[in-house]
Specification:
This protein is α+β, with helices and mostly antiparallel strands. The chain has 23 helices and 12 strands. Strand 4 and strand 5 form a beta hairpin. Helix 7 runs antiparallel to helix 10. Bound molecules: adenosine-5'-triphosphate and magnesium ion. The site of magnesium ion has 6 residues, from helix 2.
């Protein structure tokens, strides 16, 4: 495989410079963790970590701009001028020994070390424990590098295996989050978890109970945002750890649905989620996809016509989703959006029977800013049901109606003058002449939008006021026709884009 014996690496100059500064000051410096793993896999690293025998104060002393990252002595080195987000902060962590985690959240003590191998030994997985020392520059951004791989990380990379450094059960009792990290990394990289590591997760899964919700949420989010989130959740379930994310999702297993559905609630939700991922949709949509039917197990009733009914599951489901996401400490903005999508996912979309005002009501309920996500949720829901057609006529027609309902009607309302102002300017009292003037002005603005200024319109109003009733009516009348014409054209345009009548 390509990674074995690899000795040339493309490295950003910010990273090379940080390592050089440490070395020039007499310290050791190695790239470590996810960035080395990703370099060996030809993936773009998400962030860059350096490990060193320098202590935090010593690191701070030799870099111009730094800050303390965390309780592990990690120092963030700042590169403000870097255009690449992943290089704005490079994390430099002193070598350290495994820390005790009595409360499973914060280490009791952090013990630094002078030996690289101590630091490699305390890392979670072999593929994350390969260190890279930067040697000389070959050309532009290519550097010769030397790999220190004391735990066969490159071999596991070649075999696509996640394996703990050292005894897995001990590793997981030291920090239970590592079990979820194993699943997350396996999901992101499409790797397999090694057998002994699997057994240890099954045995130790209960320890996740003690882990801070924020840490669990972060791994859950990364599983959802990966290319294969459905696989990630299935794996989590099989290893007994999905319930520490949300047991509510698992309750859909074996919940048979009515005759229109080929899958149980669990598989349907996974397929909906996977479709959202295949489309590259947002985290909020992926959350809505996995949770939209979460209340189906609770609300299921036998129904003679359809076999099962789930009356009100979107209302109960919205409440359940809110509780789960709150418990996982998601930001309120995320919660609000996902809850709205779940709450309104059952909108009635029979375009033969609904009116534009019903569509307007739905938009008001779910919010203008969420309505297109709601349409996408419907697509995911549909595909997750096993219906191959993503965008059938009915849904296209519905979307077209949404756009019509949202489209700001072209009207005299957008003029920079109104009836009251016309009366003030002309000293005329209210009556049909005011309306005719408005429409006459509108006709001009439609032809030339630049004329839509208070100054022009007021001046023009004074001139129009001199016209006879008859003349004004004529001018205003053609204005009305133009409005009708533009409205018709805009709506035709919308409908054409959706290929609906
Ligand atoms: P990515 O950057 O893609 O999220 P990563 O593996 O770099 O993946 P980080 O959270 O950046 O993940 O952690 C950097 C490195 O620190 C890891 O590669 C691993 O060596 C080590 N590490 C992180 N979390 C733990 C942990 N809970 N236990 C042991 N080692 C860990
Ligand atoms: Mg990283």
């Amino acid at each position: 495989m390509k990674s074995e014996n690899k000795d040339t690496f493309a490295l950003p100059q910010e990273v090379v410079r940080a390592a050089e500064i440490l070395k020039t000051a007499g310290y050791e410096a190695y790239l470590i963790g996810g960035c080395v793993r990703d370099l060996l896999l030809d993936r773009k690293p998400k962030d860059w970590d350096i490990t060193t025998n320098a202590k935090p104060e010593e690191i701070i002393a030799i870099f111009p701009k730094t800050f303390y990252e965390n309780e592990f002595g990690t120092v963030g080195v700042v590169n403000e001028e870097s255009a690449d987000e992943s290089l704005k902060v490079i994390e430099i962590t002193p070598y350290r020994l495994e820390s005790g985690y009595e409360d499973f959240r914060h280490p009791n003590v952090v013990t630094f070390s002078t030996k690289l191998d101590d630091d490699l030994a305390r890392r979670d997985f072999t593929i994350n424990a390969v260190a890279l020392e930067i040697k000389e520059r070959k050309n532009t951004n290519l550097y010769k590098g030397h790999l220190i791989d004391n735990y066969e990380g490159q071999k596991d990379l070649a075999d696509r295996l996640i394996r703990t450094v050292g005894n897995p059960l001990q590793k997981f009792s030291e920090d239970a989050l590592r079990m979820l990290r194993a699943v997350r990394i396996a999901t992101e990289l499409n790797f397999i978890i090694e057998e002994n590591t699997i057994s240890a997760i099954k045995e130790g899964s209960g320890l996740l109970d003690k882990i801070a919700k924020e840490r669990i949420r972060d791994e859950f989010v990364r599983i959802l945002l990966s290319e294969n989130p459905a696989n990630g959740l299935i794996l989590s379930h099989n290893l007994g750890i999905l319930k520490y994310i949300s047991h509510e999702i698992e309750n859909g297993i074996g919940i048979e649905q009515n005759l229109a559905h080929s899958y149980d609630v669990w598989e349907h939700s996974l397929r909906s989620l996977q479709h959202a991922a295949d489309k590259g949709w947002t985290l909020e949509l992926r959350l809505a996809a996995i949770f939209h039917d979460v209340a189906k197990p609770k609300t299921r009733k036998f129904s003679p016509e359809t076999k099962w009914s789930f009356y009100g599951h979107e209302v109960v489901g919205a409440r359940m989703t809110e509780k789960v996401l709150k418990n996982l400490k998601f930001p309120q903005k995320t919660i609000d959006k996902v809850v709205k999508l779940v709450r309104w996912h059952m909108f009635f979309s029979d375009t033969e029977k609904i009116t534009l005002s019903a569509v307007r009501r739905l938009i008001a309920n779910v919010g203008k800013e969420n309505v297109w996500d709601l349409m996408n949720l419907r697509v995911a829901d549909r595909v997750g049901t096993g219906r191959p057609k993503e965008n059938p006529y009915r849904l296209r027609k519905y979307k077209s109606m949404v756009e019509e309902a949202m489209h700001d009607p072209v009207s005299v309302g957008m003029l920079k003058i109104n009836g009251n102002r016309i009366m003030q300017v002309t000293h005329e009292t209210s009556g049909p002449r005011i309306g005719h003037i408005l429409h006459a002005l509108f006709e001009e603005v439609i032809e030339n939008p630049k004329l839509n200024t208070e100054e022009y319109l007021e001046g023009r109003t004074l001139k129009l006021a001199k016209f006879s009733d008859k003349e004004l009516e004529l001018l205003g009348g053609s204005g009305k026709e133009i409005i009708g014409e533009i409205e018709r054209k805009t709506i035709k345009n919308i409908r054409d884009r959706y290929h609906v009548e």
